[in-house]
Amino acid sequence: MISKALVTDAAIIEGILLDDETALSRLYKLHFPMVLFFVQSNSGTEDDAKDIFQEAVIVFYEKVKAGQLELHCQIKTYLYSICRRLWLKKLSRSSRFSHGMVEDTESELTPQVEDEAEQAEQNELKFEAMGNALAQLGEPCKTLLEDFYIRSMGMPEITEKFGYNNVDSAKNQKYKCLMRLKKLFFLDYQVPS
Amino acid sequence: MSDRELLELIERYHQHQVTSDERRMLQERMAADPVFAQRVREMELFTSTLQQHGRQKSLRERLNQEHLAWKLENQKAMPQAPVLKPRKPIQIFMRRYAATMGVAATVAIVTVFSSLLGMEMWRSATKQQTARYVELRREVDDLKRKQNAILNPNPATPKASATNPGQFSGTGFVLTSDGYFVTSYHVIEGADSLMIENKAGTKYKVEEIYSDQVRDLALLRVIDTAFTGFGKLPYSFKKKESDLGERVFTLGYPREDIVFGEGTLSSRSGVYGDTASYQISIPLNPGNSGGPLLDDRGNMIGVISGKMLGVDGAAFAVKSAYLLSLLEQLPEHRLPQPIALPKVNALAGTSRPQQLKKLQDFVYMVKVYN
Asked: Keyword DNA-binding on this protein (chain A) (predicted)?
């Protein structure tokens, strides 16, 4: 059993590294029901479970991609611990009765999980803030920035696409857009001290 | 350096397109100027977030698709099996406090019923108490006895027991002049030894001849060697039942001295319809038990036995007819010679104080030792 699970884990990690679509769907099918069960049996809904699980998967995915993942246990355990931590945090925040943190009695890999959970939360906050900032930015700034930073288009291409006179004015435009976006972003998002 | 130049520099720095001079300059400036370093870090965070945003957006979309796919696949397999409906506030409240409420309700129910039960029991107990029949045997005060012993130390007399007033006391009266004596059975119940003593201080040791527990009568006999006889009895015994409303009186020892009590015969049956007793309206106290009940003419008509607590003026006396029938029924070995009861009544026609003067020598305090 253990070796089989390990094989599956290794296959998934490899699949993610190779941008294999099926890896993610296998990950989802294998591990989501467990998180769903946990959240639902702790006064959550399926949507809560989905959000929590996706936060955890994103952290996991990015770590795998960046090659920073230090896995001391199965992926199942790893994801479950993070989800558990995240959900307990969320619960304690929404609860009227507990003021402090929920005491987690079960966690086996507390320090790492704490980090990952923290990271997942920050990630979520950043993502939301950036989404809001981009939505408020408006066209054509949004497309321009997305083209440059996300789709990795070169400045000449962008100059052509948006019909600027030269590369320099496109760069200037991009700079202005970026500054506005930055302002909007930091309105929403506080850098954790 | 303007923000724009800085931005471009940082961008190039991240894309590893900076010259080594530029890189060194940037690093030196960051080390020297914390505000500048903060700006650089913010810029880095911002751009990386922007880039991440793009990546994560597609990742999230894929995950959502996975979720939908998973949902489609699993929806049929587990049709909301463990899905809990969102609870209403009242349901949450009930769920949270159901146990506490249960305990509180149980306590409340137990308290209510036990107090109701307790009150009911208390009421029935007090009711019982109000109609309780008590025997008027007097328990001698232990404390008083000790105090007397201290106040009257009598080391000269070797008979220490002579000062002992006994555990209980009652009243008794002379049946025949040759030493037979009557009292209530409950007075001498459980006695080891018995003494009788009258107002003049004459003391005799007596023994129990016969006891009738049902009629509450006891027959005693003086066994003292110094005894020479009680003398001629002034009263006689009445065989017939007395009439309602007859004036009756008694003498007894509810305390150390003899006490007179007077009243009327208020019923010809006793407690719980007992036809062996009279009900009389004489105020009686513990210690009166065993005393004689006499009518106006000085006939002995009964033996004081007890009273009802909580009922006004209801005392009881065993009828003399029962005493006489008891004497007739006694077996030969208990009562060796036929008892010579006094036939002549020396009290009739005299005034009450005169009667009492004659009577008081024949009414004794019975002291019970056990």
From this structure: yes
pLDDT at B157: 41
CA distance B293 to B10: 130
Domain range for B331: 135-370
Contact A58 B45 (CB under 8 A): no
Query: Residue B209 — very low, low, confident or very high, per pLDDT cuts 50/70/90?
Result: confident
Residue type, A30: L
- Flag whether pLDDT at A99 surpasses 70: no
Q: By CA distance, what is B60's nearest residue in A? A: A54
Q: Does residue B157 fall inside a structural domain?
A: yes
Residue B352 and residue B295 in contact, taking contact as beta carbons nearer than 8 Å? no
The answer on B153 and B44 residing in a single domain is: no
Cα–Cα distance, B300 to B283 (Å, whole number): 18
Say yes or no for a CB contact (<8 Å) between A149 and B51: yes
Please count the residue pairs, one from chain A and one from chain B, whose beta carbons lie less than 8 angstroms apart: 83
Same domain, B139 and B49: no
Does B86 contact chain A (CB < 8 Å)? yes
Which of A70-79, A156-165, B302-311 is predicted most confidently?
Answer: B302-311
Count of structural domains within chain B? 2
Cα gap A95→B116, rounded to integer Å: 43
| Cβ separation B66–A24 shorter than 8 A | yes
Whole-angstrom Cα distance, residue B301 to residue B278?
A: 9
Together in a domain, B158 and B273: yes
Q: Measured between CB atoms, does B53 come within 8 Å of chain A?
A: yes
B208 and B329 housed in the same domain: yes
Give the nearest chain B residue to A40 (CA atoms): B83
Tell which of A58, A174, A187 to mutate to test the B interface (max B CBs under 10 Å).
A58
Q: What is the ipTM of this complex?
A: 0.71
pTM of the predicted model as reported, rounded to 2 decimal places: 0.44
Distance between B68 CA and the closest CA of chain A, angstroms: 10
B163 and B34 in a single domain? The answer is no
Cα B357 to chain centroid, rounded? 46
> What's the confidence (pLDDT) of residue A32?
83
The pLDDT tens digits for B284-305 are 888 888 899 999 888 899 999 8
